[in-house]
Design goal:
115 residues, mainly alpha, two-stranded antiparallel ribbon, 5 helices, elongated
């Protein structure tokens, strides 16, 4: 996933309504009308949120007879998760090295200065 796509995806998920839409789409495809039902906003407003998710490649819309269901792209979510996990592991490794250093330094200091 390139930096531009990654930035668009995180920007799209920065909005709580869009995060909620993504959460609801984990249960299955839904039409704009079905997605808009619990909100006190117009279909047009929900469509704009979906368009942002679509431009971030998080969702797609397809034609299914008379319906145009919105589909969550789980692969893109997986790529976001991989990016986060890679950085979390790097931080964890750095903290582990710090812990080792502090333990070594603490042992050395206590051996040099007994109570």
């Amino acid at each position: 996933m390139d930096d531009d796509t990654l930035s668009r995806a995180f920007a799209a998920l920065a909005d709580p309504t869009r995060r909620d839409l993504v959460s609801r789409l984990t249960l299955g495809d839904a039409t704009v009308g079905e997605l808009a039902a619990p909100y006190e906003m117009s279909l047009q407003a929900v469509s704009k949120h979906i368009a942002v998710l679509e431009s971030a490649a998080l969702v797609t819309r397809r034609r299914d007879a008379q319906r145009r269901p919105v589909h969550l792209d789980a692969e893109v979510l997986g790529e976001l998760t991989d990016w986060i996990d890679r950085h979390r592991r790097a931080v964890d490794e750095r903290l582990d090295r710090l812990d080792e250093l502090l333990q070594t330094t603490g042992t050395t200091a206590s051996e040099e200065n007994p109570p």
